[in-house]
Every structure is written in structure tokens, then in C-alpha cells.
Please model this.
Amino acid sequence: MSRESAILLSTQPRSRWMRLDTAQVLKRFFFCERSLVVSMAAWIPSIAPLESKIDMARIIWQCAESAHALRNRVFELRFPNRMLEEEGPDRALIKLFGGIKDSPSDSAFLMSLTEVLLPALRDSYRAYLAVSDSIADGPTHRFLSLALSEKDEQIRVLQRWLQFQLSTEPRAREEALAWAQTVAQHLSDLGSVGIGPSQLVPAAIALAGSKTYSIPGKPSRDPRFWRCRFYWPDVVDPSFPYGEGMHLQLRSAISHLNEVWAIEAGGVILSAFADVLPWEWIHDSARWTYDESRHCRMGYDRLLSWGLKPAEIPLGTYIYESASGQDPIYRLGMLYFFETKNIRHKLTRAQLFHSYGDRLSEHDMDFDWADETIHAGYGKHWLKELLSLRREDPAAHEQIREHCGYLVGQFVNTATTAEVADIKRVAAALIAQAAARS
Ligand SMILES: [Fe+2]
Ligand SMILES: [Fe+2]
Model:
């Protein structure tokens, strides 16, 4: 070979994937995460244990953050923008991931998620990190390593909830197994998630045994708590004081715990508007749902730290139910209504807790206030976006907010005399318990 035509060659595997090959695989991962977020969010109201809703909300947020990083990375790799808005050759795979939203039961949903789809994604991340180039694709390595470790934890946590669910509804086991096997078979037919080129499949296949998803009219409640619709006497009796001192500490913790409705509303609206609003909606509402789960956990944690037992603690449903049967825009409106209604009290209450020397309540309320300020912004922004998309006046978001107040009022009017008496009795007992421990 002449000196002029000599070429340097190397056998290093770094060049295995070119820039656009890399972007194609990352785009597939993005759509898989996105589909899992939408399905998990939709199922939050249906699954009963309080901690399972809290765990699910955290997992949704983690998956949405991974999806967000994947999406940004695909943009950085100069992948054609318009192609990032559609699944392209991965359409059948993504349809399968989205198909578990139509699972026939809680157990079937959890099993297909925990034993089929999450492990497939975890294995693909592991394979990607093993063979991709950590020099050229270093930015991906950083966030995908985190996503991989989160996948391991997500599978562990959800596996626990699956086993719990199967123990409470043993008759659902066979159906869940059949469903998970169907999902696994379709996944295998499609070559799993993988890191190879997309399989060109002409059309997505319908999943045998699926049941079209609908938003539950009533949310499932953890049976360990004292279950009710209206969770404190002041909800149904305006003359009942919100209270001061220990009464305020208790009332505030009960409010935080009962923000379980906001986790559910966040999940429902994330899913309901996922295909209508842009990706940023899913990203924001995943964070919103997670934040509400932290507020709920704050209240639960404080009540337990005071020695109170779940069976003595009221866990209600009225805010969730007030928006049932309505256009889901009223669930978004309901969150906005309560965020803006209560936010002005939060700092005052944090100061009162400070004056009592109750650092934990002060701490929780202070962090909650910061979160709620973000949420009020989400509510206003996305209500306006939705109204614009519907060719309605974006300024009508205030009317939606007002109508939510009306819906709650109407629902509260359905409280029976027995319900009012019961919640007064349970609240009095809880106050007495707390007083005995103070
Ligand atoms: Fe909250
Ligand atoms: Fe909030």
C-alpha cells in the first residue's frame, strides 16, 4: 500500500452504534417509560393499600424523570424532531406497553408490570450500558445508570404489592397469570425491548383478556383505616372549629393524610390527558402526583409518630367522588381549587406550629407550601392549555375552579345524619387518644 493511501483502522467496539442508531434505541426507551407512566397513573385509584399508592406515585415520577432525560438526549443527538413525536417502527411494542392499562384486574396489572414489562426495560438498560460508548454517549450513561438502579428498586417494591394483592384476592391469581403470560408472549414475539434494530411489525395485536379501562367512580381505600366519605367534622358541619393547639396539629395531619385524593386525581388526569397535551404535561403531572404522595405520607407519618393507630384515623373519599362522572377537566380543576383555596393558610399554620415547638408539623407545612406554590402554577397553566385546545376561552379556568367548589358543596350536601354523627364520634375519640398521649 502506498504511503498516501494508508488508513488507520481500529477494532475497538466503541463505534458499534452511530449517532442516529443510538438515538433510535433511546427513543424506544422513552416511549416505553412514557407508556408505563400513563398506565400506572391510571391505576392509582384502584389499588387499595395507602403505601402502594404512595410507592406508585414515586415510581411514576422516577419513570417520568428518566423519560424526560431520554427525550432530551434524543434531541441532543439531532434526531429529527418530528420523528420524536411518534413511535415509528416501535409502534407495536409501545402499543403493547400501553396495553396493560386495560388489564382485567389489579393483580393482573401489577403482575404484567412487575414480572414482564419492568424487567424487560431493566434488562435493556443493562445491555445498553454494557455495549454503548461511554465516551461519545457519556451523558446517557449518567442518567441511564440511575434509571437502571431505580428499575431494580421499582421491581422489588411492586413485587411486594403484587404478592399482597394476590393474598387479598386469591381467585384473581389464575386470571393474572394468564394475562401476564399473554403480555410476555407478545413481548417475546416482538423481540422484547432490547437494544437491536426495531422489528417492523405491520400492526399491533389485541391482547386477549383485556378490559377497557375506565376511571373508577370510587377510589379503593386501605381497610386498615377508619373508612368514610367525609374525614373530619368541619367538612360537614361549618360550626365545627378547625381548632388550635393540639386540635390544629391533628387536623393538619388528617388533612395531609387525606391528600390521598390528590394522588389519585393527579394520576387520573395525567393519564386522561396524556394523548391530548404535550409531553411536558406528563412530566409536570407526574411530579404533581408524587408531591401529593409526599404530603399524604407526611400526615401519615406524623399521626403514627404520635402513637395513633390507623384504625382510629379517618380516611375519606369525598373530594375524589365529587368529580366522579364529570369531564376529567374537573379533576384537574379540583386540584387547582384546593391548591388555591388552602395555600394562604399554610405559612400561618407553619408559624403557629413553630410557636408550639412542634418542629415536625412546621417542617412539613413549610415544605408543603413550597410544593403547592408550584402546583397552583401547574393548575392554571394546564387548565388554560386544555381550554385552548378545546377552542374555549382560556380565561374560563376560573369558572372551572368555581364549578369545582360547587361540585364539592353538592356532594357534601349528601352527607347523612348518621355520617355526621359517626365522624364526630371518631374525631372526638382521636382527639381524646391524642390528649392522653400529649
Ligand atoms: Fe398537597
Ligand atoms: Fe398540591
